């Protein structure tokens, strides 16, 4: 019995910071509850959609994240305490 995936899922699902996972085409493949709460949306609505649609209200996000394929990027959103990690 391998508990590592269970522990990872429990951590990601309960962490205070929002986390959004993108595929190679910059589409949303996973989003944790903190990110859904911040964005006021439900996960099934977002999955498969371009990340640009998620951040339409923050026009400065492309300048911060020019190359999303480079790895982990943190985008602090000043209107809220938590940040969202891409």
Offer a few descriptive terms.
35% helix, globular, alpha+beta, 86 residues
Question: What is the topology?
Answer:
Elements: H1 4-14, E1 18-22, E2 28-31, H2 33-39, H3 43-46, H4 51-54, H5 61-64, E3 74-75, E4 84-85
Parallel strand pairs: 1-4
Antiparallel strand pairs: 1-2, 3-4
Structural overview:
This protein is α+β, with helices and mostly antiparallel strands. The protein contains five helices and four strands; from the N terminus they run αββααααββ. It has a four-stranded mixed sheet. Strand 1 and strand 2 (28-31) form a beta hairpin. The longest helix has 11 residues, at 4-14. The chain is globular and about 35 Å long. The mean pLDDT is 75.
How large, in whole angstroms, is the Cα Rg? Answer: 13 Å
The share of residues in extended strands comes to 15-25%
The biggest beta sheet, please? 4 strands, mixed
* Tally of DSSP helical segments: 5
Low-confidence stretches: none
Brief write-up:
With 86 residues, the protein is an alpha+beta fold.
